[in-house]
Design brief:
With 198 residues, the chain is of the alpha+beta class. 42% of the residues lie in helices and 13% in strands.
Length: 198
C-alpha cells in the first residue's frame, strides 16, 4: 500500500501516462480497468491527483495507520483499537475522520491493523452538511454512479470470458466478478435484476 502511495506521490513521475506505464501501477489504467474510470470521475480520488490531461494537480495521497480512538476526560484517558471498537465508538470515529477527509480502508476480518487514506486537497467525500439539509442522497448518488457503471462494465467483460475458451484464468474471480459486488448493498434486488439482463 505504501509502495503504491509513494509511487503516486513521486514527483519525478510527471504525468498519469508515466504512472500507468509502470508495471505495478498498470491496474490504474482506465483502458483495462473500468473501476479506474470511476476513480477519475469528478470527485474521484484520481481526479484529485491528476487533471484530465494527465498532468499532476499538486495534491498527494497520504496513508496512515489508525491505531484507534482515545478519549480523554479531565485527568483520565482511555484508548481502544478500531478493530476492537463497539458500534458507537466506531461510528463516532468514522464521523470525526470524515470531518477531516480521512477514510478507513476495508480491513480483512483476521487483521487488527487499520489503515486510512487522505487526499491533501479533499476535505469531505460527501459533504456532511449536505446530509443535514437532505441533499446527501443526491450527492452520494453522484459519487456512486461512476462505480455502478464500472461494475456493470466489469460484469459484461467477465461474462464474455465464458464464451472465449480461455484455458488459464481464475474461474472464481470470473464467477464472482460477473455479479454485483461493490455497489450491491446500494441496489434493490429488482434493480440488480433489471441491470443484469443481457
Amino acid at each position: 500500500m505504501t509502495v503504491l502511495a509513494n509511487t503516486i506521490n513521486d514527483l519525478t513521475i510527471e504525468t498519469f501516462d508515466e504512472l500507468i506505464a509502470l508495471p505495478h501501477m498498470k491496474h490504474l489504467d482506465p483502458k483495462i480497468n473500468p473501476n479506474a474510470k470511476a476513480l477519475f470521475a469528478k470527485g474521484g480520488w484520481l481526479s484529485e491527483l491528476f487533471k484530465e490531461d494527465g498532468v499532476r494537480t499538486g495534491n498527494t495521497i497520504d496513508i496512515s495507520n489508525l491505531s484507534g480512538v482515545y478519549v480523554e476526560e479531565e485527568d483520565y484517558g482511555k484508548g481502544i483499537s478500531l478493530a476492537s471498537a463497539d458500534t458507537y465508538t466506531k461510528q463516532t470515529a468514522d464521523i470525526h475522520m470524515a470531518l477531516n477527509g480521512v477514510y478507513e480502508f476495508m480491513r480483512h476480518s483476521d487483521k487488527s491493523t487499520s489503515y486510512a487514506a487522505k487526499i491533501s486537497s479533499l476535505k469531505e467525500y460527501v459533504k456532511l452538511t449536505s446530509i443535514l439539509n437532505n441533499k446527501g442522497a443526491k450527492e452520494a448518488y453522484k459519487k456512486i454512479k461512476p462505480f455502478l457503471i464500472a461494475e456493470l462494465e466489469r460484469m459484461i467483460i467477465l461474462r464474455q470470458y465464458q464464451n472465449l475458451n480461455i484455458e488459464n484464468y481464475d474461474s472464481t474471480y470470473q464467477e464472482n466478478g460477473s455479479n454485483f459486488l461493490t455497489v450491491s448493498d446500494y441496489l434493490t434486488l429488482e434493480t440488480k435484476e433489471n441491470l443484469s439482463k443481457d
